[in-house]
Amino acid sequence: MTVAGVILAGGLSRRMGGAEKSLLLLAGKPPVAWVADALRPQVSQLALNANGKPERFAFLDLPVLADTVEGFVGPLAGVLAGMRWAQKMPGISHIVSAAADTPFIPTCLVQNLKQALDGPDDIAMAYSVGRIHPVFGLWPIHLAGDLEKFLVQEDKRKILEFANRYTLHSVDFDKVGEDPFFNINTPEDMAIAQSRAGEDKL
Is the pLDDT of residue 13 over 80? Predict the structure, then answer.
């Protein structure tokens, strides 16, 4: 199994007062850079899914993939964009998706998700603090056609609704540390992350 990564940065940051939360500084670098630094060693290729001007992410030195489905339909559009990108590269069988506003993701993310898969259509998602985190998933890229139909023809959006059409595995990450999938949505969340960033190392 060869895995490529896609960082999902296509959200609208409504609760951050219009500021793009993945680009705010956290202990000297933006949250999206924390995510990229954690993911790079875990995948064969890495890209970023974002709409708008790609130049704002130039400092990451990553391909920037716009949604292939119009209308800001949510994280699954980014997953689909990642699948279509990965299909152009020989040997890639899966992509792992991760949110751009979660600076403390574990360095064992891909390894642990891979270990959960049994069959070719299986999907694995991270679980911690009593809930599943659907944007942290390991996806077979041959499901791209099914996902595009789900988004476009069926006009559906929910990640778990799509994933539950296949065999979905939830992978417990509670043992890797304090809420590894903590995400920054509000100024209050950023204050918590600033506090954690003084001690947490990726």
Answer: no
β pairing state of 168-172 and 131-140: unpaired
- Looking at 18-27, 64-73, 87-96, which range is the least confident one? 18-27
Tokens of 24: 């705010």
CATH architecture of 3-197: Alpha-Beta Complex (3.90)
For the chain, the domains span: 3-197
pTM: 0.91
| Residue 4: Cβ within 10 Å count | 23
Fill in the amino acid letter for 14: R
Q: Tally the C-alpha atoms within 13 A of residue 137's C-alpha that lie toward its C-beta.
A: 26
- Number of Cβ within 10 Å of residue 86's Cβ equals 25
Q: Which of these, 166, 175, 159, lies nearest to 8 by C-alpha position? A: 159
Q: Classify residue 53 as left (phi > 0), alpha (psi -120 to 50) or beta.
A: beta
